[in-house]
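fold-stage: in
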Amino acid sequence: MSGRQILTVLAILAMLNAACFDEPATPLQHSRLDSHLLGQWDCSSADASSDDRALLTVLPFDGRQYYAEWKEGEKVWRYRAYPGDLRGLSILNVVEVSESPNQSWSALRAALPADGTMSLVVPAKRITDMMGAEARLRTFRREAHQPSAWQPFARCVPHKE
């Protein structure tokens, strides 16, 4: 898949709810950032029964990571996301911006279809619910190339002022 299809954009945000690893799923590489992920996105939950909405803002922090804000109403979460490659998939290693030394990481995939939307997926609940951080990460790394290792998180459209 192309970087454009699998941007590992600021889906980071979504990862907040799916943080489940003690370390990044891939080495933090010096991959190029995808400019198609940058900007503001109006996101809605992938769960059709939910009316949750958020504004996602994705910016380049430096040449190797994104800075993302996920805003729901007045509540804002801030993330760093690093592009990585796992079993041939472009993913984002996401961590919340915090001063805490014990940070949880997650993984995110972003797809940008031709219609201009962005779909964000996070590790499947069956993986994030596993007991033991090492088992979760080992299972995720082994199965990441399988569609069943992921679950929908959000669907986003470019923000219009």
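fold-stage: in (second)
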Amino acid sequence: MTIANGYAITPGVSGISAPVSSTGAAEYTSLELYDNSEVDIIDISKYGGGSPFLTMLTKFGRSRNGGKYNELGLTERTINNFPEIRYKEQDSESQTYTVNAVAAAGTAGANMTIVFTSTVGLLPSMTLRIVRTNEQIRIVSVDSATNVTATRMVGTVTNQALAVNDVAFVLGTSVASGTAGIGDVGSVAADRVNYIQKFVESVEIKDFQMMSSKVGGNKGAIIDRRMKQAAVNMSMQIERAALFGQKFSGVDGSGNPYYTTEGLVECAKRGWSDDISGSLTLRTLEEGLAQPMRYLSPNNTTKFLLCGSRVRPAISALVQSQINKEDILDSSTRVETLTIGNGKYIFIDSPMLDETSGFEKHAIVVDPAFFTVCYPTGEGFDGKFDGKTRFEYNQADSTYANQKGDYVAYVGFQNANANSTALLKIVV
């Protein structure tokens, strides 16, 4: 293993064989002689410590909003629209328009027809800047879905002929004295939907496994350990879906519906994706990270950068002197940060972005207030409940000789504003 800037830049090699899946009974048998006073049981699995991404996401997101769950910008909330997480995304009005026909230079201060690919969102009295020539024009009237009448050279830059694909950038309005009510524009809100996914981690123990195997044996400790381990496994299921899940609805062989939820990777693919691994420099890194930073959630200028196992060494080699260690006081967390443009990135090394998942060379940008964990609500014989993880004893299928239960959770993600996310390949 090679170390650079305090991080391994080549994967380490282990002589330990991969574990082999077995039954729950085999696990209990392997712990048969367990006693806290005699034997230590140590978890050596990669993810045995829980779910660092989701823990950080919900903790930090709440702190950005005063710990409240019912205000704009939350990262954890309950909904009442099972099995869908349905919401709308509304973008700002169009700010650029594309010229669709050659136009002569015309005469400064005179009106002429200009053809755009679309005039939706344009109003009389708007001023536009032709990006290529820097000429400023003013809309006199919107004549059709593609044509406007505009005054040329409303400014100091000389008017020039317009070419197809020239871009006009909206500056604002310049309304004449005595004029009011020029009209209003808006953008259509687009429907978005994701699904709530049901996660289950089952636990089963038989009567012989409940019996103490020797004098002084602590069978309760074995059962307690198994329950805690199942809870961790449940959190790992949810985190894998949060990262890699793909949206789908289907029906099983018995005609029962099931749903899978879309996670961060698929959301980021709709946003900004780039491969800068072949030309990784400080400039290309900042350019890649600057794009999603233009899309910020309300009252928040901080994003997470989830790093694959080979990403941090590569970034550290470029910007080690610019990485800061600081305390985020409202989340009581010590973090490393990097300032890019108008915002700040918090580094998180994700243990799931490794060779196993195929994302060891990638970094994922996530806005902790846009990407929201959602739980459905419901009401049954025992009253109201929500979808957060809980343990349910399966009394119907249990006997004195065989006890069964499930950890169950109903979770999905409101993966809003894909433009605020990014999937970047950093390492060749």
